[in-house]
Amino acid sequence: MSVLYDRHLLPMPESSQSSASGYHWRPAHAVKVAPAVAATLCQNLLVINSVGFLLGYYAMYNQWIQLGWFVSMTLAWFCVGGFQDFMQGLRSDRWLRALACLIFLLLARSSVIESPGMGIQDLWLGWFKTSMLMAVLMMLWRIGSNPRAARVIGFPLVATACASAIGSILIFYVFDAEAVFGMRLRNWFVYGGWNSVCTGLTFGFAAVWAVHHWYQASDRREKMIWLLMAVILIWSTLMSMSRGALLALVMSHAALVLARGWRASIKPIALLLTCIVLFQVAAPIIFYFGARDISERLGVPAASVTSANSGDEVIVANPAVRMVERADSKRFEIYEAAFRSMTTWQDWLWGKGLWSANDFWSCSLRWNPAHIHSVFMDALVRGGIPTLLGLLAILGWGLCRAFVLAKSGDELWFMLACFGCGGLVFDGDSVFSLLSVPRFETLVLWVPLVIASARYTALRHNV
Q1: Residue ranges of domains in the chain
Q2: In this structure, how many other beta carbons lie within 10 angstroms of the beta carbon of residue 236?
Q3: Cα separation of 213 and 268, whole Å?
Q4: Closest by alpha carbon to 375, among 415, 335, 408, 405?
């Protein structure tokens, strides 16, 4: 017994006390080792939780698997003392508290004031989805307060995105029974073929991360790895033929120029422009092989398959022209229908509610779209003018913090935040729910802004 205890005299537990003495020897280093082990385990679980959750946007079949990962790992994190870390963001960061207040006000409005078509199931599910969003943001803030967050999260995210892109290309272009070379790229690992717009925005987000690490890396081998992943992801984004993703890529590089100037930005801009030009030049070759696959499937001569009659699901011989020809893809009809649904002053003051049915605006359209295709328009319709202004204020405040970091040399978060804001102007659903129809809003918007705010708070406190 004496071998296991040091010479500090402390009362022994009743079960271990000697009948000859009221004192015992305390375990050597027990006070020092146990908290250190718990802290390490707590930090490791936080990293595993954060990384796994973000990888869910690239490699988990649906959002319920991703949510199950988050809930189970968060509970494990709490069991080893992570709850105090979980709450740290709300205690330390005014920006995160302001966002939480906006979300809570929307929850209260949607619960108390009548919303068209909302039932009790919508109410409970809505609270669950929005509460889960807030929990994810608090977790992201905690991982973001680590100065190595960009590395800890970045490499697994970018590597997984690359693997998903390569795997999707092989499956949809080669191995699938109905493979068509050159079809608009979709992520096979999500839903068995995620929408090409969602695919483009998520791959583009990872591409920006890879580009940043490429031009920041000093080691030659590391630089080549990041460059290879950046090229793969930029090409995958272009192959999705998503104009929103392309706009977001341009916005992210414009943010780099704004923060660091032309001289520091010339290599990333040259890389993006080179990929765009090469994609445009290679498109006729891609379309040639695609037309051959279509002709075999339909049993028609390959010469009869042209860019005009191949539809929007295939990369055409002139992608630039096709992107212009697609015009607004009926988005302005959706926005017009949403505006027409705002028929009373109450609608403009506090909106229709977060969980109101889409029927109040979508039924006036022929194809009954599932969401409004703009997070800003959705904020206006669901929460009225005050909510839209509140969202813009939150985003502006967050972008200012990210810009301060960028001017100090940490421009990744500003680039990613501008990517998200640019990509969600004409795409996306609600930014106040974790389980939206498109699903990617939390990744492309809140991840960079929350981590930027955490880094800014740490910088101000010299952490």
Answers
A1: 1-57, 82-144+331-463, 176-206+219-329
A2: 26
A3: 10
A4: 335
Q: Which residues of 184-200 are buried (b: 16+ CB within 10 A; e: fewer)?
A: bbbbbbbeebbbbbbbb
**Tokens 């004031």 correspond to what residue?**
113
b (16+ CB within 10 A) / e for 293-330: bbeeeeeeeeeebebeebeeebbbbebeebeeeeeeee
End-to-end CA distance of the chain, in Å? 43
Element (H, E) at 122: helix 120-144
> What residues form DSSP beta bridges with 24?
10
List all residues 6 or more positions away from 294 whose beta carbon is below 8 Å from its beta carbon.
180, 302, 305, 310, 314
> What are 80-117's pLDDT values in tens digits?
888 888 999 999 999 999 999 999 999 999 999 988 88
Residues 54, 154: Cα–Cα separation, whole Å = 10
Provide the Cα torsion 448, 48, 91, 456; round to 10°: -30
Residue type, 263: R
CA 245 – CA 428 distance, rounded (Å): 12
What does the chain come to in residues?
Answer: 463
Q: How far is CA 350 from the centre of its chain?
A: 27
Tell me the Ramachandran region of residue 219: left when phi exceeds 0, alpha when psi lies from -120 to 50, beta otherwise. beta
Q: And the tokens for 293?
A: 């696959």
Q: Which residues are paired to 9 by β-bridges?
A: 25
For the chain, how are helix, strand and coil distributed in percent, rounded to 5? 70, 5, 30
DSSP per-residue letters across 251-314: HHHHHHHHHH-HHHHHHHHHHHHHHHHHHHHHHHHHHHHHHHHHHHHHTS-GGG--TTTS-TTB
Could you read off the pLDDT of 231-274 as tens digits, one per residue? Answer: 999 999 999 999 999 999 999 999 999 999 998 899 999 999 99
Residue type, 270: A
- Comparing 159 with 341, the larger pLDDT belongs to 159
Would you say 441 and 430 are in contact if contact means Cβ atoms under 8 Å apart?
Answer: yes
Q: How far apart are CA 415 and CA 232, in angstroms?
A: 19
Q: What is the pTM of this model?
A: 0.89
* 3-class SS of residue 103: helix
Which of 156, 113, 107, 115 is closest to 134 using CA atoms?
107
